[in-house]
Amino acid sequence: MDGAVAVLSLGLAPYNLMDKEMNEELIAALEWARDQSARAVVLRSSLRHFSAGANLDNMIREADESEVLDWGFVETLEAFSAFPAPIIASVNGVCVGGGFELALACDLIIASESAKIGSVEVTVGLQPLMGAVQRLTQRAGAARAREMVLLGRRYPASTLERWNVINWTVQDESLDDATMVIAQELAHGPTVANAASKRLVAIAVNQGVKAADEAMLEVQRAVLGSADFRTGVRSYRENGVGMAQFEGA
């Protein structure tokens, strides 16, 4: 923990190759962050690269034994979506295949300018297995999603920022500091309201704007009853905009 920020570091040398065990560890790590009352989460790599994708040796071995790869993909995506606090992917080096899908499961993505990012599964005869197709379609539109998953190219972070796939590109040496600035800003925000906003975005994306409109009254109950709402109003009256010190309750 860094204050109220849970920092989850991938460190499976040399390339953070993903498999069932890693997915299980990611779910457990989010459960730990929830137990710590984390108000923001950073997902990063402690290695030169964020992730080079799936462990293909394990994958081909399991594919020879079963028609379905039971690596907990859906469970991992659900754990990221259901986590109440914002999750930031801090991407360095190579981030492709399943590693890219892991970043796409986060709420926000910040990447170093030298990062090379892409959905490259087609180069080994696969389609993305952990949600990249639908999440790229959400973020960048169907045309860009088709381009990325059908051609399997790696793109510079600046291109994907322009396409609305990632949020920010920063200089390599600034990645860690820039990530923590954003994470701390989120962690010092109104945690209950942030969770409500995250939930409404998910409803709008998955069920449509009308469903999100219909959910607003229920979602706002916790926000209107929160101490942070009262703190924010009091601070606004006494000190002006943006000066509230929220406690996350």
Automatic annotation (TrEMBL):
<dbReference type="GO" id="GO:0016853">
    <property type="term" value="F:isomerase activity"/>
</dbReference>
<dbReference type="GO" id="GO:0006635">
    <property type="term" value="P:fatty acid beta-oxidation"/>
</dbReference>
<dbReference type="InterPro" id="IPR029045">
    <property type="entry name" value="ClpP/crotonase-like_dom_sf"/>
</dbReference>
<dbReference type="InterPro" id="IPR018376">
    <property type="entry name" value="Enoyl-CoA_hyd/isom_CS"/>
</dbReference>
<keyword id="KW-0413">Isomerase</keyword>
<comment type="similarity">
    <text>Belongs to the enoyl-CoA hydratase/isomerase family.</text>
</comment>
<protein>
    <submittedName>
        <fullName>Enoyl-CoA hydratase/isomerase family protein</fullName>
    </submittedName>
</protein>
<dbReference type="Pfam" id="PF00378">
    <property type="entry name" value="ECH_1"/>
</dbReference>
<dbReference type="InterPro" id="IPR001753">
    <property type="entry name" value="Enoyl-CoA_hydra/iso"/>
</dbReference>
